[in-house]
Amino acid sequence: MIVAERMKQARYMVWGSVGAGKTSLIDALSDTATNTARKTQMIDYRGMAIDTPGEYAERGHLRRHLQTTSVDVQVIVVVVDATSPETRFPPHYFLMFSQPVIGIVNKIDIASDADVEQATRLLRQIGVVGDIFYVSATTGTGLGLLKEKLLNYLQ
User: Fold this and answer.
1) Element (H, E) at 104
2) Domain 12-154: CATH class, spelled out
């Protein structure tokens, strides 16, 4: 009897609060930008990316679904909004994962409200010890370097 072996696809998983720009970032990285923001309602497998609802990150009792899904990914990407003064993740939360965890400070193009230093501090406080990238999913700033790094993790 011949058994077909299922090949596991290399994936990255994007975590972040509601409105951080996770879906827009995935669209920009995959060159499928629609210029229309849409709300992610459930965990969404999109090629190499796994998009997650912000509510799952913000509500502790739902985070376990993200933890379970993360088992099959090569890298976890944590997105924070440069215009937000807080994060909903507890301190040191991402230290529990065995995969590399990288941080993204999104919305750096919003000059009047963006606080990149505060966003960086928040990422470090919640346990992101890997690289941090500063991007704008809308303008494309910083996406080239991020794409390159993600591809290195997924090979």
Assistant:
1) strand 101-106
2) alpha beta
